[in-house]
Every structure is written in C-alpha cells, then in structure tokens.
Structure prediction request, 226 residues.
Amino acid sequence: QVQLVESGGGLVKPGGSLRLSCAASGFTFSDYYMSWIRQTPGKGLEWVSYSSSSGSSIYYADSVKGRFTISRDNAKNSLYLQMNSLRAEDTAVYFCARSPGFSHMDVWGQGTTVTVSS
Amino acid sequence: EIVMTQSPATLSVSPGERATLSCRASQSVRSNLAWYQQKPGQSPRLLISGASTRATGIPARFSGSGSGTEFTLTISSLQSEDFAVYYCLQYNNWPPWTFGQGTKVEIK
Prediction:
C-alpha cells in the first residue's frame, strides 16, 4: 500500500542542524511531487517546502528560506529536509506528503517530531 | 499570501446530525481547495480536492461545495468516527500553499 515514513526528528539546540528523511513505498516515487508540512499547536498546519518530481523546481516558505533545503533521491525513493540554523519556532511535527503536481497533498506520512530547545 | 479562514472554530454536533463547516479565502482560489480530516495522534487525511471531488474511499456522507472565496464541507449524518479536526487548503496561488486554522467537530 502507499506509505510515507518520516524519520530523523529529535531534540536539537538552537542554531543546530537536523536532517529529516521520508521513505516512500507502494507507488512510483519519481512520478510525484513531494512536500514537507509542519504542525504546531499554536500555528496549525504550515507548508514548509515543495519539490517537483525531478527536483528541478523547488519552493520554500519565507520562514525557512535560506535555512532549510529540500532534496530527493528518486533511486532510493526518498525525500529529505536539511534543516540548519534551527530556532525555537521550528519546533513542530514535520510531515512529508505526496502530491500529483504543485497541487493538494493526497497522502501524508505519520510525522516526526522536531524540538529545538536549549 | 492567501489567508484561509475557517468557521466555526468548534462545532458541537450530535451523532446522526448534519455538520456544516465553512472555509473562506482572502481572494479567489477558483476551485483549488482541499479538505482534510485529522484525528488525535494521526496525520491529516485527504477528504475532498477540487472543492467537491471526494478522495478514494471517502464515504458519500462527506460533500464539498463552493468556488472562488467561499467553501463548505458538509457531513450529512455524523458518525462516531467523524469527530475530528477538519482543515481546508488552498492550492491556487502558490507559494505559499496555505491552510485554514481548522474546525474541531466535537460530540454534543
């Protein structure tokens, strides 16, 4: 069945770095656009970054631009989010999600928790 | 950036009753609007895309309507498994893709 599994979350100090991974299975990963979305109790759901199927078109939310980098390895059916210069406000559950284009997200992973705290 | 506003924040409904949730966009998003359901400890699940097209496996009691700036998600007869938080998402003007703040449907 179609599945997305995130990993790599954890506790990190402000200014630190973390790399999230999303392993895809049950579908042809290279056919789909992929995104990262985060969720906090206070701000709800916030779109973070989007990658086209080939990785040639990429977008970032202003709140993470210059600090986060999305990438994908279609041979490994994997999506990544490199997060640098982390701030307390980056604390959230991070979801990866599949999209049929630069469109809605039709399948979501279960999420991985990132906590930025000293 | 398009701002999505959902109302009400909380909706108290008895099982078997009809629930009507609203989502308003700060400018037209045409029909590029999706609805998601999220239960505690779970990830969001796609219910509706294109404002009115049910996703695969979604029961017919869920229906979406609207276009432009005003959208509605209707649950015709609430079942126990429908008590959850519902979010709308606009994907017309991007980046950014923007979500509403959610409507919690609780048992009355």
Notes: The longest strand of chain A covers residues 18-25.
